[in-house]
Amino acid sequence: MAKPNYNFAKRQRDLAKEQKKEEKLARKKAAAEGTPVENDQNVDAEHDVAQEDADATQTPAPHA
Question: How many structural domains compose the chain?
Answer without folding.
Answer: 1
